[in-house]
User: Fold Phosphoribosylformylglycinamidine cyclo-ligase from Georgenia soli.
Amino acid sequence: MTDTPDQPITYADAGVDTEAGDRAVELMKAAVRGTHTSAVVGGFGGFAGMVDVSALKDYRRPLLATSTDGVGTKVAIAQAMDVHDTIGHDLVGMVVDDIVVVGARPLLMTDYIATGKVVPERVADIVRGIAEACSIVGAPLLGGETAEHPGLIAEDEYDVAGAATGVVEADAVLGPERVRSGDVLVAMAASGLHSNGYSLVRRVLQVAGWSLERHVPELGRTVGEELLEPTRLYTPACLDLIDDPAVDVHAFTHVTGGGLAANLARVLPKGLVADVDRSSWTVPPVFEMVRELGQVPWSDLQGTLNLGVGMVAVVPAGSADATLAAVRAHGFDSWVLGTVKEDDGAPGADGEAVRGTKGVDGGAVRLHGAYRTS
Assistant:
């Protein structure tokens, strides 16, 4: 037998505060309930969240679409600034905006927060942000977990992840099978860096010695405020496009990790190439700041960050004007990014076309022209 301690060891002595967890639940409860629709069954606090899907009986062949993701090292910015009520928008954007790419309508979302120490107000802020974003995209936040991991995660640190499920009619699935030569690429503007490439951005700032409190005239705010700008939520605009009789959406691509070309290539069929004109938009100042501050090559920048394009709709040429108008009605900019053509195998202006990305043996993307900066 080993020596016994002088005093009994409790769960709290081990670093887990169950009472703090309960307080966090009380603080977040109203926000979570605010996302619940009439389809939610069982309310708040059960072992499992439930949603009534009896409406699916009207589908001919309903397919469930699911996605899971986190927000990466952007959480380090939120922690450094002690601002936690926006990171939830990033989480929902990374998850729900992925399932809408195939044409799916969200049915539910769940979240997971791991932290070294449960601070009820901080956890409640994170969940309130998630709930607010869920309300925007129409996805009930059905449940989640806040896990306290003392000794594994530092007390002031946390990570967040989420998963979403949606439904789409089998014969309405969007993707490469619908894309045709002559289709037009309609870009939807990003709100900023969104939630990808923050390891690069943080490294650039570290080497340059820039603090998050530094005010940058070109940005009109501090570095930290710019980096915390929430990811734009595209699901409402995309669903409106799907429902618009004047628009025939063939595919969407969500521009996340890997940049525009790598993600666009995933939704193109073999034999077709998307010609993208870099000069068709002005790269927002935050990306130019990263490039200049770190002397980051354009090739590395465009393969890491979204450079101002957050979502792309692939539509027939005859739907382009209606698509532009519908997206702009949601309050953000939209423009024609390029066109889809037969792939002749020719390289782009600065090298081979991008193809075979993310494990998908699909189409190709050629980038041409020079980026415009403000």
Notes: The mean pLDDT is 90. The longest helix spans residues 120-137.
